[in-house]
Design goal:
Length: about 130
């Protein structure tokens, strides 16, 4: 989003001019803004002092930073879950002693049989007794 060309102090000054009795159209013309922009400023900053506006800006910046951190953390979490799922597939293959023949899509290769994947027929897969 594009930053405003006006500072909080300037915006609050415009609002105070209008509250003091100046016509909205005159204030807008003087500062070179549309009436829609003026009313947008009034909705956001109406009734605030400069210190309140600065506090609002600081809170908005902190909120944006925290949202970014949360998004990064959620992405890291999803990556770790994906890696853990892949490690689980590798662990299952290791338990088969490497004798399970598996295709590229984690399906047993043709002719391969494994009690974890298909009913056991004693062909290629020997699992440790456990």
């Amino acid at each position: 989003m594009r930053p405003s060309r006006f500072t909080e102090e300037q915006i609050i000054g415009m609002l105070k001019e209008q509250e003091a009795g100046a016509k909205t159209a005159d204030v807008c013309r003087k500062h070179g803004i549309s009436t829609a922009t003026f009313y947008k400023f009034k909705a956001k900053y109406g009734g605030m002092d400069v210190s309140d506006a600065r506090r609002l800006k600081a809170l908005e910046d902190e909120n944006a930073r925290l949202k970014k951190l949360l998004a990064e953390q959620m992405l890291d979490n999803a990556i770790l879950k994906d890696v853990a799922a892949k490690n689980g597939d590798a662990r299952r293959e290791a338990e088969c002693g490497g004798s399970c023949l598996r295709g590229a899509w984690s399906e047993p290769a043709s002719g391969a049989s494994c009690s974890e994947h298909r009913p056991f027929d004693g062909a290629l897969c020997q699992h440790p007794a456990g």
